[in-house]
Design a protein that fits this description.
Order of helices and strands: HHEEEEEEEEEEEEEEEEEEEEEE
Oligomer: single chain
Helix content: under 10%
Largest sheet: 5 strands, mixed
Structural class: mainly beta
Shape: globular
Number of helices: 2
Mean pLDDT: 89
Protein backbone atom coordinates (compact mmCIF):
# COMPACT_ATOMS: atom_id res chain seq x y z
CA UNK A 1 0.00 0.00 0.00
CA UNK A 2 1.01 3.50 -0.52
CA UNK A 3 2.13 5.94 2.10
CA UNK A 4 -1.27 7.50 1.76
CA UNK A 5 -2.88 4.26 0.77
CA UNK A 6 -2.12 2.78 4.11
CA UNK A 7 -5.63 3.91 4.70
CA UNK A 8 -6.37 1.42 1.99
CA UNK A 9 -4.83 -1.21 4.17
CA UNK A 10 -7.08 0.10 6.82
CA UNK A 11 -9.84 -1.61 5.04
CA UNK A 12 -7.92 -4.81 5.39
CA UNK A 13 -9.10 -4.63 8.90
CA UNK A 14 -12.63 -3.75 8.08
CA UNK A 15 -12.70 -5.58 4.85
CA UNK A 16 -12.31 -9.22 5.69
CA UNK A 17 -10.04 -12.03 6.64
CA UNK A 18 -7.08 -12.94 4.52
CA UNK A 19 -6.30 -16.50 3.81
CA UNK A 20 -3.24 -18.46 4.55
CA UNK A 21 -0.71 -19.04 1.94
CA UNK A 22 -0.08 -22.37 0.40
CA UNK A 23 1.56 -25.49 1.49
CA UNK A 24 4.25 -25.40 -1.10
CA UNK A 25 5.30 -28.93 -0.42
CA UNK A 26 3.32 -31.62 -2.18
CA UNK A 27 1.72 -34.06 0.22
CA UNK A 28 -0.02 -37.33 -0.48
CA UNK A 29 -3.38 -36.12 -1.67
CA UNK A 30 -6.62 -37.93 -2.07
CA UNK A 31 -8.44 -37.90 -5.38
CA UNK A 32 -9.80 -34.44 -5.99
CA UNK A 33 -13.63 -34.06 -6.13
CA UNK A 34 -14.96 -33.75 -9.69
CA UNK A 35 -17.44 -31.10 -8.57
CA UNK A 36 -14.61 -28.94 -7.27
CA UNK A 37 -12.70 -29.31 -10.51
CA UNK A 38 -15.72 -28.30 -12.55
CA UNK A 39 -16.21 -25.31 -10.27
CA UNK A 40 -12.94 -23.90 -11.54
CA UNK A 41 -13.93 -23.85 -15.21
CA UNK A 42 -14.24 -20.15 -16.17
CA UNK A 43 -17.68 -18.95 -17.24
CA UNK A 44 -16.54 -16.02 -19.33
CA UNK A 45 -14.87 -15.51 -22.69
CA UNK A 46 -12.95 -12.53 -21.25
CA UNK A 47 -9.15 -12.41 -21.41
CA UNK A 48 -9.35 -13.29 -17.73
CA UNK A 49 -11.45 -16.06 -16.20
CA UNK A 50 -14.15 -15.57 -13.63
CA UNK A 51 -13.27 -17.02 -10.23
CA UNK A 52 -14.10 -20.69 -9.74
CA UNK A 53 -17.30 -21.37 -7.80
CA UNK A 54 -16.96 -21.06 -4.04
CA UNK A 55 -19.80 -20.99 -1.53
CA UNK A 56 -20.48 -20.27 2.12
CA UNK A 57 -18.33 -17.77 4.00
CA UNK A 58 -16.43 -16.29 1.07
CA UNK A 59 -15.91 -12.70 2.26
CA UNK A 60 -12.13 -12.34 2.58
CA UNK A 61 -8.98 -10.27 2.06
CA UNK A 62 -5.40 -11.32 1.33
CA UNK A 63 -6.00 -15.09 1.48
CA UNK A 64 -3.28 -17.67 2.05
CA UNK A 65 -4.30 -21.32 1.90
CA UNK A 66 -2.82 -24.77 2.36
CA UNK A 67 -4.14 -28.30 2.34
CA UNK A 68 -3.30 -30.43 5.36
CA UNK A 69 -2.36 -34.11 5.20
CA UNK A 70 -5.93 -34.94 6.32
CA UNK A 71 -7.34 -33.13 3.27
CA UNK A 72 -8.65 -30.06 5.05
CA UNK A 73 -8.16 -26.68 3.41
CA UNK A 74 -6.93 -24.11 5.92
CA UNK A 75 -7.21 -20.50 4.87
CA UNK A 76 -5.99 -17.50 6.85
CA UNK A 77 -6.60 -13.88 5.91
CA UNK A 78 -6.53 -10.25 6.95
CA UNK A 79 -9.00 -9.37 9.69
CA UNK A 80 -8.95 -9.24 13.46
CA UNK A 81 -6.04 -11.12 14.97
CA UNK A 82 -5.93 -13.03 11.62
CA UNK A 83 -9.12 -14.58 10.33
CA UNK A 84 -9.62 -18.24 9.47
CA UNK A 85 -11.76 -20.28 7.09
CA UNK A 86 -11.85 -24.01 6.40
CA UNK A 87 -13.15 -26.22 3.62
CA UNK A 88 -13.27 -29.95 2.96
CA UNK A 89 -13.68 -29.65 -0.82
CA UNK A 90 -12.24 -26.27 -1.85
CA UNK A 91 -15.73 -25.12 -2.79
CA UNK A 92 -17.72 -24.66 0.44
CA UNK A 93 -15.94 -22.47 3.02
CA UNK A 94 -16.82 -21.85 6.65
CA UNK A 95 -15.56 -19.16 9.01
CA UNK A 96 -13.44 -20.38 11.90
CA UNK A 97 -12.08 -18.81 15.07
CA UNK A 98 -9.32 -16.21 15.19
CA UNK A 99 -5.79 -17.53 14.71
CA UNK A 100 -4.74 -16.15 18.10
CA UNK A 101 -6.63 -16.87 21.31
CA UNK A 102 -4.93 -13.74 22.67
CA UNK A 103 -3.14 -11.12 20.62
CA UNK A 104 0.58 -10.53 21.21
CA UNK A 105 1.34 -7.44 23.30
CA UNK A 106 4.09 -6.20 20.98
CA UNK A 107 1.51 -5.43 18.29
CA UNK A 108 0.65 -2.18 20.09
CA UNK A 109 4.12 -0.82 19.17
CA UNK A 110 3.19 -0.94 15.50
CA UNK A 111 -0.57 -0.59 15.34
CA UNK A 112 -3.19 1.57 17.01
CA UNK A 113 -5.65 -1.33 16.70
CA UNK A 114 -4.97 -4.97 17.65
CA UNK A 115 -5.12 -6.31 14.14
CA UNK A 116 -2.83 -8.19 11.76
CA UNK A 117 -2.78 -8.37 7.95
CA UNK A 118 -1.65 -10.50 5.07
CA UNK A 119 -0.71 -13.82 6.69
CA UNK A 120 1.45 -16.34 4.85
CA UNK A 121 1.01 -19.95 5.96
CA UNK A 122 3.28 -22.88 5.09
CA UNK A 123 4.43 -26.21 6.50
CA UNK A 124 8.11 -26.99 6.98
CA UNK A 125 10.11 -29.15 9.35
CA UNK A 126 7.04 -30.81 10.83
CA UNK A 127 5.33 -27.58 11.86
CA UNK A 128 3.16 -24.82 10.47
CA UNK A 129 4.65 -21.37 10.06
CA UNK A 130 2.66 -18.17 9.70
CA UNK A 131 4.34 -14.88 8.86
CA UNK A 132 2.08 -11.83 9.11
CA UNK A 133 2.04 -8.01 9.18
CA UNK A 134 1.27 -5.41 11.83
CA UNK A 135 1.32 -1.73 10.90
CA UNK A 136 0.08 1.75 11.71
CA UNK A 137 -2.29 2.87 9.00
CA UNK A 138 -0.94 5.50 6.66
CA UNK A 139 2.68 4.85 7.61
CA UNK A 140 5.53 2.41 7.22
CA UNK A 141 5.89 1.96 10.98
CA UNK A 142 5.43 -1.76 10.46
CA UNK A 143 6.56 -5.17 11.58
CA UNK A 144 6.53 -8.72 10.25
CA UNK A 145 5.75 -11.29 12.92
CA UNK A 146 6.04 -15.07 13.03
CA UNK A 147 3.83 -17.65 14.72
CA UNK A 148 4.21 -21.44 14.78
CA UNK A 149 1.84 -24.35 15.37
CA UNK A 150 1.89 -28.14 15.33
CA UNK A 151 -1.65 -28.35 13.92
CA UNK A 152 -2.23 -25.08 12.04
CA UNK A 153 -5.63 -24.74 13.68
CA UNK A 154 -7.06 -21.49 15.13
CA UNK A 155 -6.03 -20.94 18.74
CA UNK A 156 -3.00 -23.24 18.42
CA UNK A 157 -0.51 -20.61 17.29
CA UNK A 158 2.46 -19.61 19.44
CA UNK A 159 3.79 -16.16 18.57
CA UNK A 160 7.55 -15.92 18.06
CA UNK A 161 7.77 -12.13 18.00
CA UNK A 162 9.08 -9.79 15.32
CA UNK A 163 11.10 -10.92 12.32
CA UNK A 164 11.73 -7.63 10.52
CA UNK A 165 10.60 -4.04 11.01
CA UNK A 166 10.47 -0.67 9.26
CA UNK A 167 10.00 2.88 10.49
CA UNK A 168 9.51 6.44 9.31
CA UNK A 169 13.15 6.71 8.21
CA UNK A 170 12.98 3.48 6.13
CA UNK A 171 12.60 3.48 2.37
CA UNK A 172 10.65 0.22 2.51
CA UNK A 173 7.58 -1.14 4.31
CA UNK A 174 7.82 -4.36 6.33
CA UNK A 175 4.46 -5.93 5.49
CA UNK A 176 3.06 -8.62 3.17
CA UNK A 177 5.60 -11.38 3.95
CA UNK A 178 6.02 -14.57 1.92
CA UNK A 179 8.35 -17.43 2.83
CA UNK A 180 10.09 -19.33 0.03
CA UNK A 181 12.11 -22.47 0.77
CA UNK A 182 14.55 -23.19 -2.06
CA UNK A 183 15.50 -26.65 -3.24
CA UNK A 184 19.03 -26.00 -1.92
CA UNK A 185 17.57 -25.76 1.60
CA UNK A 186 17.95 -21.99 1.91
CA UNK A 187 15.00 -19.95 3.24
CA UNK A 188 14.03 -16.53 1.92
CA UNK A 189 11.38 -14.00 2.97
CA UNK A 190 10.04 -11.50 0.45
CA UNK A 191 7.91 -8.56 1.57
CA UNK A 192 7.06 -4.96 0.80
CA UNK A 193 4.39 -2.44 -0.04
CA UNK A 194 4.78 0.86 -1.89
CA UNK A 195 7.80 3.03 -0.95
CA UNK A 196 10.74 1.49 -2.90
CA UNK A 197 8.89 -1.76 -3.52
CA UNK A 198 9.47 -5.46 -2.94
CA UNK A 199 12.38 -6.59 -0.76
CA UNK A 200 13.87 -9.91 0.35
CA UNK A 201 15.99 -11.18 3.23
CA UNK A 202 17.52 -14.59 3.95
CA UNK A 203 15.99 -16.56 6.82
CA UNK A 204 17.62 -18.93 9.30
CA UNK A 205 15.63 -22.21 9.04
CA UNK A 206 16.25 -23.01 12.71
CA UNK A 207 14.72 -19.75 13.99
CA UNK A 208 12.47 -18.53 11.18
CA UNK A 209 14.15 -15.14 11.53
CA UNK A 210 16.85 -13.29 9.57
CA UNK A 211 20.07 -15.19 9.02
CA UNK A 212 22.76 -13.36 11.01
CA UNK A 213 25.49 -14.22 8.50
CA UNK A 214 23.61 -12.52 5.66
CA UNK A 215 21.88 -9.26 6.55
CA UNK A 216 21.56 -8.04 2.96
CA UNK A 217 18.17 -6.59 2.04
CA UNK A 218 17.68 -7.39 -1.64
CA UNK A 219 15.41 -5.37 -3.96
CA UNK A 220 13.19 -7.37 -6.32
CA UNK A 221 10.53 -5.04 -7.76
CA UNK A 222 9.95 -1.29 -7.80
CA UNK A 223 8.04 1.47 -9.56
CA UNK A 224 10.57 4.31 -9.69
CA UNK A 225 8.29 6.59 -11.72
CA UNK A 226 4.63 7.37 -11.21
CA UNK A 227 2.72 5.49 -8.55
CA UNK A 228 4.72 3.42 -6.07
CA UNK A 229 1.90 0.87 -5.88
CA UNK A 230 3.43 -2.60 -5.82
CA UNK A 231 3.03 -5.01 -2.90
CA UNK A 232 2.08 -8.53 -1.75
CA UNK A 233 4.95 -10.60 -3.24
CA UNK A 234 4.69 -14.37 -3.63
CA UNK A 235 7.45 -16.53 -5.13
CA UNK A 236 7.34 -20.03 -6.62
CA UNK A 237 9.85 -22.04 -8.66
CA UNK A 238 8.65 -23.81 -11.79
CA UNK A 239 10.66 -25.27 -14.68
CA UNK A 240 13.98 -23.81 -13.65
CA UNK A 241 12.67 -20.26 -13.12
CA UNK A 242 11.72 -18.34 -10.02
CA UNK A 243 8.42 -16.49 -10.52
CA UNK A 244 7.59 -13.37 -8.52
CA UNK A 245 3.88 -12.54 -8.32
CA UNK A 246 2.88 -9.12 -6.97
CA UNK A 247 -0.20 -6.93 -6.65
CA UNK A 248 -0.10 -3.59 -8.45
CA UNK A 249 -2.10 -0.37 -8.04
CA UNK A 250 -4.81 0.44 -5.50
CA UNK A 251 -6.45 -2.03 -3.15
CA UNK A 252 -9.27 -1.79 -0.67
CA UNK A 253 -11.51 0.76 -2.39
CA UNK A 254 -14.41 -1.52 -3.29
CA UNK A 255 -15.51 -1.14 -6.89
CA UNK A 256 -13.06 1.77 -7.28
CA UNK A 257 -10.12 -0.57 -6.65
CA UNK A 258 -7.57 -0.88 -9.46
CA UNK A 259 -5.65 -3.84 -8.01
CA UNK A 260 -4.21 -6.38 -10.45
CA UNK A 261 -1.75 -9.28 -10.33
CA UNK A 262 1.46 -9.29 -12.38
CA UNK A 263 4.44 -11.62 -12.57
CA UNK A 264 8.09 -11.69 -13.58
CA UNK A 265 10.69 -14.45 -13.57
CA UNK A 266 14.39 -14.92 -12.84
CA UNK A 267 17.04 -17.63 -12.87
CA UNK A 268 18.22 -16.61 -9.39
CA UNK A 269 16.04 -16.27 -6.29
CA UNK A 270 17.37 -12.75 -5.67
CA UNK A 271 16.69 -11.63 -9.24
CA UNK A 272 16.80 -9.80 -11.52
CA UNK A 273 13.12 -10.49 -12.32
CA UNK A 274 11.87 -9.53 -15.77
CA UNK A 275 8.50 -9.77 -17.47
CA UNK A 276 7.54 -11.52 -20.72
CA UNK A 277 8.81 -8.52 -22.70
CA UNK A 278 12.13 -8.42 -20.89
CA UNK A 279 11.27 -5.35 -18.79
CA UNK A 280 12.79 -5.42 -15.31
CA UNK A 281 10.42 -5.55 -12.37
CA UNK A 282 12.73 -2.98 -10.80
CA UNK A 283 11.57 -0.62 -13.54
CA UNK A 284 7.79 -1.06 -13.40
CA UNK A 285 7.81 -4.35 -15.34
CA UNK A 286 5.33 -7.18 -14.87
CA UNK A 287 3.27 -9.48 -17.09
CA UNK A 288 -0.48 -9.40 -16.24
CA UNK A 289 -2.02 -12.52 -14.66
CA UNK A 290 -5.36 -11.17 -13.42
CA UNK A 291 -7.04 -7.80 -13.90
CA UNK A 292 -10.53 -6.35 -13.44
CA UNK A 293 -13.14 -7.69 -15.84
CA UNK A 294 -16.91 -7.63 -15.74
CA UNK A 295 -18.09 -7.68 -12.13
CA UNK A 296 -14.69 -8.94 -10.91
CA UNK A 297 -13.01 -5.76 -9.64
CA UNK A 298 -9.46 -5.35 -8.33
CA UNK A 299 -8.21 -8.95 -8.02
CA UNK A 300 -5.09 -9.19 -5.86
CA UNK A 301 -3.63 -10.03 -2.46
CA UNK A 302 -2.70 -13.32 -4.10
CA UNK A 303 -1.00 -16.50 -2.99
CA UNK A 304 -0.08 -19.57 -5.02
CA UNK A 305 -0.91 -23.07 -3.86
CA UNK A 306 -0.06 -26.45 -5.34
CA UNK A 307 -2.96 -28.92 -5.10
CA UNK A 308 -3.80 -32.37 -6.50
CA UNK A 309 -5.01 -30.87 -9.78
CA UNK A 310 -2.21 -28.35 -10.24
CA UNK A 311 -1.29 -24.86 -9.13
CA UNK A 312 -3.94 -22.48 -7.86
CA UNK A 313 -3.95 -18.72 -7.57
CA UNK A 314 -5.91 -17.73 -4.45
CA UNK A 315 -6.89 -14.06 -4.16
CA UNK A 316 -9.56 -11.55 -3.22
CA UNK A 317 -11.65 -9.37 -5.51
CA UNK A 318 -14.53 -6.94 -5.16
CA UNK A 319 -17.88 -8.13 -6.46
CA UNK A 320 -19.45 -5.47 -8.67
CA UNK A 321 -22.76 -7.31 -8.44
CA UNK A 322 -22.74 -7.26 -4.65
CA UNK A 323 -21.95 -3.65 -3.65
CA UNK A 324 -18.21 -4.23 -3.91
CA UNK A 325 -18.08 -6.95 -1.25
CA UNK A 326 -14.55 -8.45 -1.05
CA UNK A 327 -14.72 -12.14 -1.91
CA UNK A 328 -12.53 -15.19 -2.27
CA UNK A 329 -11.30 -16.03 -5.77
CA UNK A 330 -9.66 -19.31 -6.82
CA UNK A 331 -8.42 -20.25 -10.29
CA UNK A 332 -6.11 -22.87 -11.73
CA UNK A 333 -2.84 -21.83 -13.37
CA UNK A 334 -1.37 -23.25 -16.58
CA UNK A 335 2.39 -23.06 -17.16
CA UNK A 336 2.42 -24.49 -20.69
CA UNK A 337 3.85 -21.29 -22.21
CA UNK A 338 6.48 -20.81 -19.53
CA UNK A 339 4.33 -18.10 -17.98
CA UNK A 340 1.39 -18.54 -15.57
CA UNK A 341 -2.04 -18.23 -17.20
CA UNK A 342 -5.16 -18.30 -15.02
CA UNK A 343 -8.10 -20.40 -16.18
Amino acid sequence: MSPTSRTSRTSRASRTPRTPRTLRKRTALIAFPTAALLALIPSTASAYPNPGRVTGDVRTHDPSMIRTSSGQYLLYATGGGIANKTSSDRTAFRNGADAFSSRPGWWSNYSSVPEAWAPDISFHGGKYLMYYSVSKFGSNTSAIGLATSTTGQPGSWTDQGTVYTSGSSSDYNAIDPNLFVNDDGKWWLSFGSWWTGIKMIQINPSTGKQLSSNTTRYSLASRPTGTKAVEAPFIVKRGGYYYLFASYDTCCAGTSSTYKVKVGRATSITGPYTDKNGVSMMNNGGTPVLESHGSVIGPGGQSIMNDADGDLIVYHYYDGNDNGTPKLGINLLSWSTGWPVAY
